[in-house]
Hints:
Layout: E1 3-4, H1 14-25, H2 41-58, E2 64-69, H3 72-84, E3 90-95, H4 98-107, E4 112-118, E5 140-143, E6 145-146, E7 151-152, E8 163-166, E9 183-187, E10 198-203, H5 220-225, H6 235-250, H7 254-274, E11 278-280, E12 291-296, H8 302-311, E13 314-315, E14 326-329, H9 336-352
Parallel strand pairs: 1-13, 3-4, 3-5, 5-8, 8-9
Antiparallel strand pairs: 2-10, 6-7, 9-10, 11-12, 12-14
Helix pairs in contact: 1-6, 2-6, 3-4, 7-9
Bound molecules: pyridoxal-5'-phosphate.
Amino acid sequence: MKHNFGAGPCVLPQEVFKQASQAVLDFKDGLSILEISHRTPEFEAVMTEAAKLVKELLNVPEGYSVLFLQGGASLQFAMVPMNLLSEGQTASYLETGVWANKAIKEVKNFGNAHIVASSKDANFTYIPKDYTIPEDSAYFHFTSNNTIYGTEIFDIPETNIPVACDMSSDIMSRVIDVSKFDLIYAGAQKNIGPAGVTVVIVKDAILGKTTNKIPTMLNYQQHIDNGSMFNTPPVFAVYVSLLNLRWLKSKGGVAEIEKENIAKASALYKEIDRNPLFKGTCAVEDRSRMNVCFVMENPELEKPFLKFVEENGVEGLKGHRSVGGFRASIYNALPITSVHALIELMQIFEEKNQK
Length: 355
Ligand SMILES: *Cc1c(COP(=O)(O)O)cnc(C)c1O
């Protein structure tokens, strides 16, 4: 049994893998999910139920649309300003890491980006606080969980302007108040499903205001009007996402998984803080519950530790190249038993390295 701490694509529940495999062989009367038309009632039902489950699990209020799009979160970096900004206007961004930076970079094709605050000065190991968001910005954008550095924003910044959020790596991991957001997007491959589909939750009222000419495929309104079926959707990715959303619902939904996520993260951080060989890399109050980043007091032990855990079934623990050390991604589908297994390995390694 492998313990997959990979940052994305990442572990999904075993039962989802099994059901997905079955649908490849026989989804409907001996036909594979891969060969039926997306216009069949059976697939239309998949799309409808997937959107309905996103709304239900996140308690999405009236007036919002849920979309399943392609292009990853990375395409959203451009689609957000393309749909929400007009030439000459400014959008405000919080700079909390590489992903935030990539989003900021896309703005200048459509208007101006204003950075309200940055934690670049400390390699993004904390979340900037006490900044002001100019009320004359077209919208404010932030990244709720910084996958690479292991920081997470638990208090949604207060502002009167529209709020757009890259929630790729912590969506569905904790209860959020969707009414505080105007646009949420997330590449599916961390907590929703497999790679190949991106979930967008958008408040209908913020659309249709830009003077930009928007290519059809990049226009949120087009996708809303066509129920995410303007063209052929990524049918398999949507189907596997549906299976995973059903799994989450059967576990008791987001509030229940949040409790488990808190238990997993607390146990791991507790060991990092207790074990003299290890130390966390982020400000304690900003520690992510999804990506736990840590290093060793003695960097020379990092390679041997990685080898040791890999020999014992741990996958994907190596930190991102811009941070080094280790990153344990503990998304919804990673069982707490895997976290306990890692903690035990950290303790065995501690014993082995006591002289
Ligand atoms: C993984 C990730 C992305 C990139 O997603 P793609 O779907 O690969 O484009 C963007 N933002 C965050 C926060 C991520 O974790």
